[in-house]
Structure formats: C-alpha cells, structure tokens
C-alpha cells in the first residue's frame, strides 16, 4: 500500500529556518512533489524531486533520499506569508499504466512575529 | 490567463439530490483530475482522465461519475448525494502524467 507521513503542525518564528519532513512507503516511486496551500485556497506547486539530492529555488529547498523514503522542505528567512499548509505528494502506481499523485495529510505551518 | 476554472464555488444539496461540477482548463493539458479534501485526510483522488474520451478510477471513486467529452472539460457528477460527500472538491490538470498539477480554486459542497 501507499503511506505518506508528515507532521500535522509546526510553529516557527519570522526570519528563522524551518524544515518540514516527509516519509513515504510506496511501490513504483516516480517523483516527489511539495505544494503550498493557504487556508481556503488551492494548492500551488513548490518543488519536484525525482533523483536524490537537494533542489534549491530561492528561499525554498527540497531534499530527497529514495533509499530512505525521505524528503524534507526547507524554508529560509521565514515570512508571515509563509503561514500555510505544506503538502508532500508522491507519484506512485495505483495499477494500470498511470502513476498518480498520492498526497500526505499536510503540515500546517504557523509563522509567529 | 484563466488556467483551471471550477464551477460552482459553493453548493448546498439535500441528501439524494444530484449535481454536476464543471472543470475547464485552457492550457491544452491532456491529464485532468478530481480530488476531494477533508480535514485530517489530505487530498484524495476520485477519478482522473489521461485524454479526451478516457476516464479512470482513483482512490475513492464510489458515488461519483465523470466524463471527458472535450479535452478542456472534465465533469464530476454525484447521482445521489450523501452527507459523506460533504467536502471541498478540487479539479487539477497537467500536461503529462509526470508534470506538476495546476489546481482550480475548489468547490465547497455541503450535503444535508
């Protein structure tokens, strides 16, 4: 079966660095995505990892270790607007020819002044 | 540049009523998806389509039907709504099965 775990909630201070972890167990792994979702809004794409290592994009970085079934999202220089839920999603095979995204339950990040 | 548009944004149904949610995308994407999002459950895939005229079941397809008669549109139908279908529904699209998803703004559905 498929399983994705990430912390339910985290709190951090404005200007600080926060790391949101995601562990997964799945068959037919074919990539890991991070999405940001502000309350009442649609998820928006942040990052994609398919090979091991770190992908950096401005203040956000994402890391993947396929052998450990582990990823993290690193947010630097936190701003109040970063308060949102962060969704880890793994592309996995549900059967047939199509790999679909399986989402974790999301981590709600609160940034305090 | 509309992207993915969902209608309606809000709807209240009585148990047993039927309705159709419409999703339209203007990015010429082949792949389209319907997800539901419930508190503490995350996004769960209901049905998806890999091209015009095709549909397939996702994780939680029971009680829903879909159609993809035109490439730009993906319809989600509830034939006989149940309170368990109270949720926020998101449509999404992607150019291929390996690319990032673009989401619509969501539909808040309440079934009483």
Indicate the topology.
The complex is a heterodimer of chains A (113) and B (112).
Chain A: E1 3-5, E2 9-13, E3 18-25, E4 32-37, E5 44-49, E6 53-57, E7 60-65, E8 70-75, E9 84-93, E10 99-103, E11 107-112
Parallel strand pairs in A: 2-11
Antiparallel strand pairs in A: 1-3, 3-8, 4-5, 4-9, 6-7, 7-8, 9-10, 9-11
Chain B: E1 4-7, E2 10-13, E3 19-25, E4 31-38, E5 42-49, E6 56-57, E7 65-67, E8 73-78, E9 87-94, E10 102-103, E11 107-111
Parallel strand pairs in B: 2-11
Antiparallel strand pairs in B: 1-3, 3-8, 4-5, 4-9, 5-6, 7-8, 9-10, 9-11
Give the averaged pLDDT of chain A, no decimals.
92
Number of DSSP helical runs of chain B: 0
Order of helices and strands of chain A: EEEEEEEEEEE
Low-confidence stretches of chain B: none
Shape of chain B: globular
Please give the radius of gyration of chain B in angstroms.
Answer: 13 Å
Number of strands of chain A: 11
Q: Round the Cα radius of gyration of chain A to an integer and report it.
A: 14 Å
Element pattern of chain B in H and E: EEEEEEEEEEE
Q: What percentage of the residues of chain A does DSSP assign to strands (E)?
A: over 45%
Q: State the end-to-end distance of chain B.
A: 36 Å
The helix content of chain B is under 10%
What average pLDDT do the residues of chain B reach?
Answer: 94
Percent of residues in helices of chain A: under 10%
Biggest chain pair contact, residues each? A-B, 23 and 23 residues
User: What's the helix count of chain A?
Assistant: 0
Low-confidence stretches of chain A: none
